[in-house]
């Protein structure tokens, strides 16, 4: 049973690309209680050099639970405190509906890229 769990962790996470204008964090797979701590650490590290803009691409996310959503909200809070523009992109229909129904979409409303 542990091997199945570690396989799901390995198949989820975040890839980043940074340049002088900002950074792109592409999340993929299941962002859940198992993978969100690592994603959180990577997002916070990405915000540390204080880029002007950080875009989070969610097009590769197959599942997100409350811990994954909490990670995104925490990143938004840190970004706002550091005057970093945080944008979400790649919100496919299911994620868009979830974020809209829970009110999370309005938190990121200024930074939604379609």
Describe the structure.
By secondary structure, the protein is of the alpha/beta class. It has five helices and five strands. The protein has helices at 2-10, 36-47, 66-81, 93-101, 104-107, and strands at residues 13-19, 22-31, 53-64, 85-89, 112-113. The chain has a five-stranded mixed beta sheet with strand order 1-2-3-4-5. The protein is globular and about 30 Å long. The model is unreliable at 1-9 (pLDDT under 50).
Secondary-structure blueprint:
Blueprint: H1 2-10, E1 13-19, E2 22-31, H2 36-47, E3 53-64, H3 66-81, E4 85-89, H4 93-101, H5 104-107, E5 112-113
Give the C-alpha Rg: 14 Å
- Which structural class do the helices and strands define? alpha/beta
Low-confidence stretches: 1-9
| CATH architectural label | 2-Layer Sandwich
Might you state the CATH topology name?
Transcription Regulator spoIIAA
What is the CATH homology-level superfamily? STAS domain
Short description:
By secondary structure, this protein is an alpha/beta fold. The protein contains 5 helices and 5 strands; from the N terminus they run αββαβαβααβ. α2 (36-47) runs parallel beside α3 (66-81).
Q: Which descriptors apply to this entry?
A:
5 helices; Transcription Regulator spoIIAA; 5-stranded mixed beta sheet; alpha/beta
